[in-house]
Design a protein that fits this description.
290 residues; Rossmann fold; DNA polymerase, domain 1; 8-stranded mixed sheet; 13 helices
C-alpha cells in the first residue's frame, strides 16, 4: 500500500536529537513514518494511536522493516500519555512527538467520513469502537446556535450564518448522511454566491467537525501538561499542528510554562510543499524540558 508521508520529518527527527537505546513516544503513530526514522537511529519507540486500523498498518510495516524488537504499539488516545508512561514504560521518556494531521488513508478512504468524496459515511471518529459522537449526529441534530459556534469559532468560516441555514434547510428535506453530500452543500453555497476559494470550500468546516468529534483541542491541552511530568530533563517534545487553533494552544502553553524552553517554529519548505501539498499548513514547534 501507499504509506502516508509524514510532514517535516527530517526537521522533527533532527530536533528530537535521537540517541541509541533512548526511549521515545510517538503519540500519533499513523503509518509509522516518524517512528521508523527514530528506530533507524537506534531509539526505542512506544507508538500510540487511537485508530486501530492505523495501529495495525504501522505495526506490520515496522515488523517488515526489521524493528519489531524496538517498537511497542499502544492502542489509546495520547491524552492518556501519563498513564501509559507510568504503567507501561515505567520510567520517564527521552522524547515525544505529536503529529496532529490525519494519515492519507483517513483523508481519502471510504467509510470514515473524513474525505469530501466519502459517499457512505459522515462519521469522523478516530476510534469508532470507543467514541459515540459522530459528525453525522452534529450536522443533523445540533441547532443553529451550536452549528454557528462550531463553524465560526473552530472553522473560522466567515459565511457561517448562511451555511448553517442552508444545512438546516437541506437536512429538513432528508438527513445528511454522507461526507459527499455535506461537501456539496457547502460547495454549492460558494458557487451560488460566486465566491472563489483557494482550497476546497469544505475544508475548514470538515476540520472543525473532526476537532469537535474527537475533542482534539482538549486532548492537546491535556497532553501538553502531561509532557512536563513524563519527559526527562533536557528531553525534547515536537508538536506538528495543522490548524491555527492548535498552534495557538501550543504557543500559549509555552508562554505560560517556564519548564519549557521553546525553539523557533518551523514551516515546510517550498520543496516539501511541492512534493506533499498537505504540508502547506503544518507548523512544527519544539521545546526542551528544563
Amino acid at each position: 500500500m501507499d504509506f502516508h508521508i509524514p510532514v517535516l520529518s527530517t526537521e522533527t527527527i533532527d530536533l528530537l536529537n535521537v540517541q541509541p537505546d533512548k526511549i521515545y513516544v510517538d503519540g500519533t503513530l499513523g503509518h509509522g513514518g516518524h517512528t521508523l526514522e527514530i528506530l533507524k537511529k537506534g531509539g526505542l519507540v512506544y507508538g500510540i494511536d487511537q485508530d486501530p486500523q492505523n495501529l495495525e498498518i504501522a505495526t506490520n510495516r515496522i515488523k517488515e522493516a526489521g524493528f519489531k524488537n524496538h517498537f511497542f504499539p499502544v492502542h489509546n488516545n495520547f491524552n492518556e500519555l501519563e498513564n501509559i508512561v507510568t504503567n507501561q514504560i515505567k520510567q520517564k521518556i527521552d522524547g515525544l512527538i505529536i503529529d496532529l494531521g490525519l494519515s492519507q488513508n483517513q483523508q481519502t478512504g471510504q467509510g470514515r467520513g473524513f474525505s469530501f468524496n466519502d459517499e457512505s459515511s459522515l462519521d469522523m471518529r478516530l476510534d469508532p469502537e470507543n467514541q459515540e459522537l459522530t459528525a453525522e449526529e452534529i450536522i443533523n441534530t445540533y441547532d443553529y446556535d451550536e452549528l454557528f459556534e462550531i463553524f465560526s469559532k473552530y472553522a473560522q468560516e466567515i459565511y457561517s450564518k448562511p451555511i448553517v441555514l442552508r444545512i438546516i434547510s437541506e437536512r429538513q428535506k432528508s438527513p445528511i448522511k454522507t461526507a459527499t453530500r455535506l461537501a456539496n452543500i457547502i460547495r454549492d453555497f460558494y458557487k451560488d454566491r460566486h465566491i472563489r476559494s483557494k482550497i476546497d470550500p469544505s475544508t475548514k468546516i470538515f476540520m472543525a467537525l473532526r476537532i469537535i468529534v474527537n475533542d482534539e483541542f482538549e486532548n492537546l491541552k491535556k497532553l501538553l501538561i502531561q509532557s512536563l511530568n513524563v519527559v526527562k530533563k533536557d528531553g525534547k517534545v515536537c508538536i506538528i499542528t495543522f490548524h491555527s487553533g492548535e498552534d495557538r494552544i501550543v504557543k500559549l502553553f509555552l508562554n505560560q510554562n517556564p519548564l519549557c524552553q521553546a525553539e523557533k517554529s518551523v514551516k515546510a519548505s517550498f520543496e516539501e510543499i511541492k512534493k506533499n501539498p498537505l504540508s502547506r499548513s503544518a507548523t512544527l514547534r519544539s521545546y526542551r524540558i528544563v
